[in-house]
Each structure stands twice: as C-alpha cells, then as structure tokens.
Design goal:
about 140 residues; alpha+beta; HIT family, subunit A; 5-stranded antiparallel beta sheet; 3 helices; binds guanosine-5'-monophosphate; HIT family protein; EC 2.1.1.-
Length: about 140
C-alpha cells in the first residue's frame, strides 16, 4: 500500500494546516471537514498506517496530547462542554486517511454528532466466552 497521505505533507510543512500543537513526536491541527467546530486531529509524526504499526509509547503520547487538547477546547472560545475521542483503525472502522490519527471532537448539546449502533444484551456466558478468547489472544501477544 502506498504510504503517502496528505498528513505526511502537513507534517513536513508542504501542505497547509491550522496547527494547535506541535512537538518532536506529535502534531495536532484542525480537521478540514469538522463534524463540530474545533474538531481536531492528533497525529504521530512518524508514519504508522494503523494501530498495529504504531509504537505503543507513541500511542500513549497521542492520548496524552488528546487529553490536553480536550481541556484546552473546554476553556477556549470553542466553549464545548463535552469531548469525544474517536479513532478509526481500518477501512471497516471508517478509516479514510492511512496515517494513524486521534479525532478530538468538541461536543455541545444538540450538535448532531453521534455514532449509530445497535446495542445488544448478550447472556453472561457469551460475554465470558469472548473474554476468554481475547485474554488468550493477549497472552499469545
Ligand atoms: P478518518 O475517517 O480516516 O478517521 O478521518 C480522516 C479525517 O481527515 C477526516 O475527518 C477528514 O476531514 C480529515 N482530512 C482529510 N484530508 C485533510 C486535510 O487535507 N487536512 C485536514 N486538516 N484534514 C483532512
């Protein structure tokens, strides 16, 4: 798969972006098609197309920067009173840009943002079965 994405150009300063945070590892900027005003993207500067390719320490840093940005959004003129984090890993999950990025989405009442889902109520035995399978996968690493 071609590793090029527009985010590489933004990180390199070859494409414009409205930057809100910049350090040696992480850049954050406003989404060009915000779902709510102030919608931010937090990206690692090294290319990682998906979570599997992302250094876990850098993943932790993305979350830390996201936390700081969430606080900044609340006290900035964006003036939200809630924040959603969202990360799409894979086409099926809705990923469109194949450079890992954390969406930080400011929320206000009635802003129209939401996730569509059909929640179910499976029996405990089904939950326990899946928990065992996932624990096994974690152990295998
Ligand atoms: P994904 O669906 O991959 O999680 O989200 C990709 C996001 O990148 C979308 O919200 C889209 O609006 C944003 N995006 C795509 N191209 C650009 C761009 O050139 N500049 C900025 N700032 N955001 C972009």
């Amino acid at each position: 798969m071609n590793p090029y994405t527009i985010f590489a150009d933004i990180i390199a300063g070859r494409a414009p972006a409205s930057v809100v945070y910049d350090d040696p590892d992480v850049l954050a900027f406003l989404d060009i098609r915000p779902v709510t005003p102030g919608h931010l993207l937090v990206v690692p500067k090294v290319v990682a197309r998906n979570l599997a390719e992302l250094d876990p320490a850098l993943g932790g840093k993305l979350f830390q920067v996201g936390q700081r940005l969430a606080a900044a959004l609340r006290s900035s003129e964006v003036g939200c009173d809630g924040v959603n984090f969202f990360l799409a890993d894979g086409v099926t999950a809705g990923q469109e840009v194949f450079h890992v990025h954390l969406h930080v989405i400011p929320r206000t009442p009635g802003d129209g943002f939401g996730l569509r889902a059909r929640a179910t109520s499976p029996p405990r035995a089904d939950l326990d079965y899946l928990a065992g399978s996932i624990r096994g996968a974690l152990t295998r690493g």
